[in-house]
Structures are given as structure tokens and as C-alpha cells.
Design goal:
single chain, about 260 residues, alpha/beta, Ribosomal Protein L25, Chain P, Alpha/beta knot, five-stranded mixed β-sheet, 12 strands
Length: about 260
């Protein structure tokens, strides 16, 4: 019979679940995921879905029980490892911008393959999240939605906001720390990276509107960070983060 025409093929919907699972176990989808399956997709017992657990294991799941707010899925088979994550592990420490710009950065950085996003509170940060304003939880929801949309195998971590001292302390777990600074020498990015000898685990630091101060740049350099430039034009904070992320993946041959 052959494969059905493209117009008749049905994509398998993908869902993330917390925890570690094995073939034969059942995973429970609740909340918005359950409502999507029942109210939007009209799932019934026997339908197939793809499940990714907290270890980024991919399973072919079979819907077994459908309730109003909960859907039970049997994990029928382990699928091949997803190849969409790539070899470059980027942690993006993004200076928190005003308004909804951080939403945009989170969504697009996830699409571009960033593995962790750290909201950075620096000297010139104006928009400082409060513990109860719900912004971090909103960014985590956006990260999950973006990961699902672009077919990633894991949801990037969105940490609690950190100051520069805490961000620089993360550098020990990375091969190189790259700080974007508008006063750094404007050289081609490939040349700068060749001089640094950056590996696969990169911590990228981007300031908020107004950039990072001279004192912060000196602090970062003293901690081992490399001050780099994206050329002679000064980019908006949300543009700079995404341009650098895309360029790093492109230079690695992953974009």
C-alpha cells in the first residue's frame, strides 16, 4: 500500500512529564496537557502520543484512560534518542529587560537550542522580578511551550534570578564564559572564538538595556570571562542574545 500522502499523515503529539519512566509503566497527563488531549485533540483510548520524561527519554505512548482532568498513557516502546539537541550546551544569563522582552528572549532562545536561561539582575537592571509576581513561572511555561513547538527533547531550565556574582560562579561548570560588552574590541566572532578556544559548554552573559557597566566588565574579566563583541553596531539586548546564540550554533555547524 505504501505510505499515505503527506496531507493524510497525522503528526504524533508530544508531551513532557516529570520523573523517570520505563517501558510498560504509565504516565499521567494532567492540567493543561490533559485538557489539550481531551478538549482539543479529542483523544480516545488507543490513540498514540509521544512522551518525554525528565531524563529526555522518548516513548511511544498509548492512551489508556481518558478522564476530564487526567489522561493515563501507557509507555509502550522506547524510541530512538532525539538528535535535535546538538552538541553545544549554552547557558544564557540574560539581563532582565523591561516589559515583555524577556518573554521573547526565552521563547526564541529555547527554539535556538539554549539549554538553560538565567535571568540576570545587574547594576542597570530596571525590571527586577519580585518573588510573587509570577514572572519566573511564566518564563518556564513559555520555555515548555517553545520546546514542544520546535520538537526539542528536553525543556530548558529557567532558574531563579541571579546577580552577577552568582552567575560568574557558574563558570566553573563551563568550558568558557563569554560576556557581550559593547566596548570590547570589535573583531569577527569566529576570530574571537578561535582565540578563546571555546569548547562545547558555554556560559553567555548579556546585559539589560544600558548594557553592563565598566565595573561589571572588569569583575567578569577578573573571574576568567572573555569580553566579546558582535561588531561595531550596538544591538538591543534581546537582539544581541539571539544573534550570538544563533552564530555560535552556526559556527559549530548545527544551524
Amino acid at each position: 500500500m505504501g505510505e499515505p500522502p503527506l496531507s493524510r499523515r497525522r503528526a504524533v503529539n508530544r508531551f513532557f512529564v516529570d520523573g523517570a519512566f520505563e517501558v510498560g509503566q504509565r504516565a499521567t497527563l494532567a492540567g493543561a496537557d490533559a485538557r489539550k488531549l481531551t478538549a482539543v485533540l479529542r483523544a480516545v483510548a488507543g490513540d498514540r502520543v509521544e512522551i518525554l520524561d525528565g531524563r529526555s527519554s522518548r516513548f511511544m505512548g498509548i492512551v489508556r484512560d481518558v478522564g476530564r482532568d487526567r489522561v493515563e498513557v501507557e509507555l509502550a516502546a522506547l524510541l530512538d534518542e532525539d538528535q535535535r539537541e546538538g552538541s553545544l550546551a549554552i547557558t544564557l544569563a540574560q539581563g532582565i529587560p523591561k516589559g515583555q522582552k524577556m518573554d521573547f528572549v526565552v521563547e526564541k532562545a529555547v527554539e535556538l537550542g539554549v539549554q538553560r536561561i538565567v535571568p540576570l539582575v545587574s547594576e542597570r537592571t530596571i525590571a527586577r522580578p519580585e518573588g510573587r509576581d509570577g514572572k519566573v513561572e511564566r518564563w518556564r511555561r513559555l520555555a515548555k511551550g517553545a520546546a514542544l513547538q520546535c520538537g526539542r527533547a528536553r525543556i530548558p531550565e529557567i532558574t531563579a534570578p541571579m546577580d552577577l556574582d552568582a552567575v560568574l560562579a557558574l563558570g566553573t561548570a563551563h568550558d568558557a564564559v563569554l560576556m557581550l560588552w559593547e566596548l570590547a574590541e570589535p573583531k569577527p566572532l569566529r576570530e574571537q572564538l578561535d582565540e578563546i578556544g571555546a569548547g562545547c559548554r558555554l556560559l553567555v552573559i548579556v546585559g539589560p538595556e544600558g548594557g553592563l557597566s565598566q565595573r561589571e566588565a572588569e569583575q567578569a574579566r577578573a573571574a576568567g570571562a572573555h569580553l566579546i563583541s558582535l561588531g561595531r553596531r550596538i544591538l538591543r539586548t534581546e537582539t544581541a542574545a539571539l544573534v550570538l546564540t544563533a552564530a555560535l550554533h552556526a559556527l559549530r555547524g548545527e544551524l
